[in-house]
Specification:
By secondary structure, the protein is α/β, with parallel strands linked by helices. Helix content is about 40%, strand content about 15%. It contains 14 helices and 15 strands.
């Protein structure tokens, strides 16, 4: 067992000094949508950064300055690589050299909607093999409240080192919004919670070097709950407007008109909009972490469960509405030529994780529709048993030949006026056709969600 360092070596003071002088070597584990932008921000201010990713090809790409994340500027990545500020690996051989290790690995759900922390556990065990005094370990992956202290802490302290004395442990939830040009890693307020006061002090000092605003909370568990609440807030409000959309469909009302009018109120309301479902790496998954953890306290999170249930209904609703739309022109889903516009989970992004468009696609496919899709951002899809390829071009012939066009993602590079002009029938789940004037003779060719 390793003994705690003597007073001759103060891990806290040594690390704080190295951070203030930008001499600390920073490690980032997981080079995806969270990890890579974070790596770039640290290197841009002069820190040397070592990226670790289990995918050797991805690690090699970064080492060559080859970017694959839209939120990262090619020139910035190439610049820091050229300056020798970045190294990468697919193993933890250099972990003992690192002063700070930031963990940005996936935290998916299993088929029973329970947290799968296998990536976090695996990485923590690897770090524990090399753990030394004076290191800060910070988890950024979204997870249930208690993960840092209940799962990571015991593994790390098996090294014989003690958190808050020899090494420092914190949780700082990622707040990445892929494709958001206004709020980036640098200017998005960072929440930080430490296992103990000294860990918090060190973690705040670390994040403050590159992030404009850092907010400290009382514990790592509180920080974990912050992230769960943020995404649950969005999930619940999206579910609310989705439910209003279902009601408006029954009542024969335009939900978009109702919402636009409601959102003119200057206080007491916040805009959320309906759609074919929720996607991405956060909203469909993260609220279930809180729901799962609450059961430990014999507490039922009714809003969270109901929101998830409502949002998961939306792809089926789109399918049902597509069936009704085709029936009105005496056509069946079975054999209908249906074109989906967009499979990314949000506009202007090459990310189809948990995209509701894929759920819609699978429902239509099972019903016998003749399907194709166009998405210049996601030219291929390999997900949940699907292996799809976008049509290369949105030609006049493609639009005119479709029995139904379903707008499932509103990308900026699609001319929706042209779509409305050429397509015989459109189901618009995103109100992408807002403001487009229809020919009075064809006023019913566009059907809104």
């Amino acid at each position: 067992m390793t003994e705690s360092f003597s007073e001759a070596f103060d891990p806290r003071e040594t690390l704080l000094e190295r951070l203030s002088q930008h001499q600390a070597l920073i490690g980032v584990v997981g080079l995806g949508y969270v990890g890579l932008p974070f790596l770039v921000e640290k290197a841009k201010v002069g820190f040397k950064v070592h990226g670790i990713d289990q995918n050797p090809a991805r690690a090699a790409q970064i080492a060559r300055g080859e970017n694959y994340i839209s939120d990262v500027h090619d020139s910035e990545l190439q610049g820091i690589v050229a300056q020798g500020l970045v190294t990468t690996a697919s193993d933890f051989a250099r972990a003992a050299e690192l002063d700070v290790i930031v963990i940005c690995v996936p935290t998916p759900l299993d088929i029973n909607l329970s947290p799968d922390l296998s990536y976090v556990v695996s990485v923590t065990r690897e770090i524990a093999k090399y753990l030394r005094a004076g290191q800060l370990i910070s988890l950024e992956s979204t997870t249930y409240p208690g993960t840092t202290e209940e799962i990571m802490l015991p593994i790390l302290e098996q090294s014989g080192l003690k958190a808050g004395v020899d090494f420092f442990l914190a949780h700082s939830p990622e707040r990445v919004d892929p494709g958001n040009a206004r709020y980036t890693t640098k200017n998005t307020t960072k929440v930080v919670g430490g296992h103990d006061p000294i860990s918090l002090e060190v973690a705040v000092a670390f994040y403050s070097q590159t992030i404009e605003h850092v907010v400290a909370v009382s514990s790592a568990t509180a920080a974990e709950l912050v992230k769960c609440f943020e995404n649950t807030f969005r999930a619940v409000n999206i579910a609310l407007v989705n439910e209003v959309a279902l009601l408006c469909d029954r009542m024969g009302l335009n939900v978009w008109e109702v919402l636009d009018a409601a959102f003119t109120k200057p206080f007491g309301i916040m805009p959320f909009y309906p759609g074919p479902g929720v996607g991405g790496h956060c909203i469909p998954l993260d609220p279930h972490y809180l729901e799962w953890k609450a059961r430990e306290y014999n507490f039922q999170t009714h809003f969270i469960a109901l929101a998830g249930e409502t949002n998961r209904k939306m792809p089926q609703f789109v399918f049902d509405k597509a069936t009704r739309v085709l029936n009105k022109v005496k056509k069946s889903i079975n054999g209908a030529k249906i074109l989906l516009l967009g499979v990314a989970y949000k506009p202007n992004l090459d990310d189809y994780r948990e995209s509701p468009a894929l759920a819609v696609y699978q429902l239509l496919e099972a019903a016998g529709a003749e399907l194709s899709y166009f998405d210049s951002w996601c030219k291929t899809v390999k997900d949940h048993g699907l292996a799809l390829e976008s049509i290369p071009e949105l030609t006049d012939t493609v639009l005119q030949g479709a029995d139904l066009v379903i707008i499932t993602t509103q990308h900026k590079d699609v001319d929706y006026s042209r779509v409305v002009e050429l397509a015989p029938l459109i189901l618009d789940t995103r109100y992408a056709t807002r403001g487009i004037t229809l020919d009075p003779q064809n006023s019913d060719k566009v059907v809104l969600l």
